[in-house]
Amino acid sequence: MTEHALLLVSARPWRPSIRAIALAGLVIAAAATLTASAPQVTPPSGGTIDTVAVEGTIDVLSPGTLTVKAIDGTTHLFKWLEKAFVHGTAETGGELKGLRRGMTVVVHYSATGESATAEEIDRIDGGGLRVTEGHVTSIDRQHGEIKVRLDDHRTETLKLSNRVSRNVGKNTKPNTRVVVYYTDDKGVKVVHYFKQK
User: Fold this and answer.
1) Does an H or E element contain 3, and which?
2) 94 pLDDT exceeds 60?
3) What does the mean pLDDT of the chain come to?
4) Looking at residue 47, what is its pLDDT?
5) Domain 52-123 in CATH: superfamily?
6) Cα–Cα distance measured from residue 168 to residue 52, given in angstroms and rounded to the nearest whole number
7) Which residues are 185's β-sheet partners?
8) Nearest by Cα to 125 from 100, 94, 95
9) Fold designation for 130-196
10) Contact yes or no for 94/104 (Cβ under 8 A)
């Protein structure tokens, strides 16, 4: 090849091949998909990260950890700290606070993956929290209240715990039938979890 021919080849503009264009498109699409599917964490008012609730059955209890098989079939491992609240069990002292394998619970936890930490555990099976059913007439999250029309047509107003007020049942509309799990402290009924029936 002559020097003149080399100059002509090098002066020719670079044109990517169809294969290179397709590969670049796949890389961009994959990056967009990963970005869109990344979990979004929104700090609630007060500056802390909200908790998330998962319902399931206790599978394994060990010092410092709790494994729960969720109702969707997935298994979750949580760190268990002494400061975690437990509702619906007779406290026996010690780290496990009356929890046993096979109990149906709702775990309110913060963070995800290996950092998932149980903040509150509510026992919701037959021996756990009190339960009532009815149709939601209103939910006032700002004032922490839920009104439920019972099957005997009475309407009951219950207080929502802070975690429930922020995180549980956000898509619940009026007239939806719900199951409500609560504690009763001297006539004040505090809801720790509710779900659509």
Assistant:
1) helix 3-11
2) no
3) 78
4) 33
5) Copper binding periplasmic protein CusF (2.40.50.320)
6) 8
7) 188
8) 100
9) OB fold (Dihydrolipoamide Acetyltransferase, E2P) (2.40.50)
10) no
Lowest mean pLDDT among 7-11, 37-41, 147-151: 37-41
Verdict on whether the full-model pTM lies above 0.90: no
CB contact set of 194 (below 8 Å; sequence gap of 6+): 146, 164, 168, 169, 172, 178, 179, 180, 181
Tokens at 151, concatenated: 């099957």
- Closest C-alpha to 197, from 116, 122, 138, 133: 133
Give bridge partners of residue 148 from the DSSP assignment.
136, 156
Cα angle value 87/91/96 (rounded, 5°): 85
Q: What is the pLDDT of residues 105-127, one digit of tens each?
A: 999 998 878 889 998 999 999 88
